[in-house]
Design a protein that fits this description.
Elements lengths: L1 H20 L3 E4 L7 E7 L2 E6 L5 E6 L6 E7 L2 E8 L8 E6 L8 E5 L8 H4 L1 E3 L21 E12 L2 E9 L9 E7 L6 E7 L6 E10 L10 E9 L3 E8 L7 E2 L13 E9 L4 E8 L2 E7 L6 E6 L9 E11 L6 E10 L8 E9 L4 E3 L6 E2 L7 E5 L9 E5 L14 E2 L6 E8 L2 E8 L7 E6 L3 E3 L2 E4 L9 E10 L4 E7 L5 E7 L4 E5 L15 E5 L5 E9 L2 E6 L4 E6 L8 E7 L3 E11 L1
Parallel strand pairs: 10-29
Antiparallel strand pairs: 1-2, 2-3, 3-8, 4-7, 4-9, 5-6, 5-8, 10-11, 11-12, 12-13, 14-15, 15-16, 16-17, 18-19, 19-20, 20-21, 22-23, 23-24, 24-25, 24-26, 27-28, 28-30, 30-31, 32-44, 33-44, 34-43, 35-40, 35-44, 36-37, 36-43, 37-38, 38-39, 40-41, 41-42
The chain binds beta-D-fructofuranose (FRU).
The site of beta-D-fructofuranose (FRU) has 12 residues, from β10, β14, β18 and β22.
Amino acid sequence: MKYLRKEWRRIKQLVALFVGGTMFMVFSCQAINPPFVIQHLGEGQSIIRIEEQKKFLLLPVEEASPEVRLRMIVDNGVVCEMNVRLAINKVDYFVPVDLSGFDGKSLSFSIQSIPDTAVCWNEMKLSDSFDAGNREEFRPLYHFTPQYGWMNDPNGMVYKDGVYHLFYQYNPYGSVWGNMHWGHATSADLVSWEHQPVAIAPDALGTIFSGSCVVDEDNTAGFGAGAIIAFYTSASDRQVQSMAYSLDNGKTFRKYARNPILTSTQRDFRDPKVFRHEATGKWIMVLAVGQEMQFYSSANLKDWTYESSFGEGQGAHGGVWECPDLVELPVEGTELKKWVLICNINPGGPSGGSATQYFVGTFDGKTFVNESPQTTKWMDWGKDHYATVTWSNAPEGRHIALAWMSNWQYANNVPTMQYRSGNSVPRDLSLYVSDGEVYLKSSPSRELLTLRGKAEKKRSFKVDRAYNIDKLLAGNTGTYEMEMTIRNRNAEVIGFQLFNSKGEKVDIYYNLVEKRLAMDRTKSGIVSFSPDFPAVTFAPVEGNTEMRLRIFVDKSGIEIFGDDGRVAMTNLVFPSEAYNRISFYAKGGSYAVSDFEVYRLR
Ligand code: FRU
């Protein structure tokens, strides 16, 4: 016994000697994670040395933790930096850092401001695989979402050689905004997407904010005929415009060596949309600058000349203007075409927070003139339709728009973790005239029809007071489309509630006295994550006797299209079970519902 105690004291002395004799405390993870060593250097500074070649370092993330800076070091040089919410108290999920491509090199990470006691030190691992499996109940099925991590604006959408490219604002190192990269996905049909590797990663000029792509058929930039050229904002202390080009149809991008190509003293100077203006034979760049849009022109995509600004005294100004687009669209029923300036604004939307407004008018390659400066026009009247832009180079002269289905008021707090946020369905844009005023129509793109399973046709019925359908769809998993025609007789309110067995519901109604369509999600399911989420959104309607509705439901989103997109309303919802019942009601009179069909969407 005495001998043992003596031995124990000797071991303790040895350990103390060893610890004291080293410059820093070496905490070897050998027992748990043999292939790396973690060294704590005091005051929250640490180094992770990778001792064995594996594909990923899996970092444990806790969303409530503060962001800390990680530097990835290869042979003493920093190859990339990222901010990660490393887990201090508990692990919410893991994010992978790709270690491939550094065979035979010395690989380490330096990390600042994480206590030695944080749980991340025991939880991080090296692995040859990362499980990006979908375990989120709210993840939409037929709307695009990132495989994991955070997504906001759609970026650089371009069509080339039968492929629709979708790039997007992406944080691969967490499910909240940060570390902006351009993520990438491709599709042949706009509805089924294939994930591709990250296209553009941050560099010394900054993180990679929103922008656009063009196909340079005539090699005006000199990178090669048919190059896909990306324009984006490099964001650091200042926002400047940069370009990158792809000579392999969007698979990989090389950054232009002389970036940035356009600078300013303005703080909010971003989101370049570039397109070819056929009438003048020039390239045009539209930029969001504070609360205005600026137009620049160029012959070679590299040197840009300021042309004009648009915005003062026009439309809504409740917040900063972002993500512009400028497209020329046909006016239905006429031979006319008009220019539409898409202008995303945050905050200041019609129901609070982010939204997409637009202006209709003329553009001569230099100046945009709004033909009705007195009216503010909104493209979608829901709360979750933002950063809308269109595909460049789309076939058949189509102008296909896509929005981010969220709102900056609560985007970082919606109840998902492993990924956060999806896009809207694609919408074909055109113009129509109502009461002498020209408006944008957003019709669900025809490719959405290919998602339909067999129709569940409902009997036509009349609603005097109420009419209930107890089962919308057999085995309803929350991904469906409803289509119906409503003929009003003399009702003042035409409405229906979509609900589930938990009593969670969404109330959708036309108030024909007030001439508006409304969607009430105040009792739609989980709503408490933000005071701005429980809301009723309203859209003005013409109040015709016949109304045709298409409603897309996809787990956590509802998009309503009235009369082929003359009115559009997009709202997130988080029900704990699919809404599989519908209850129609009438006030002040009656109406009839016919051609009511429900489709499961794959
Ligand atoms: C719009 C926006 C853009 C910016 C990007 C950054 O949602 O703020 O203006 O480029 O997000 O992620």
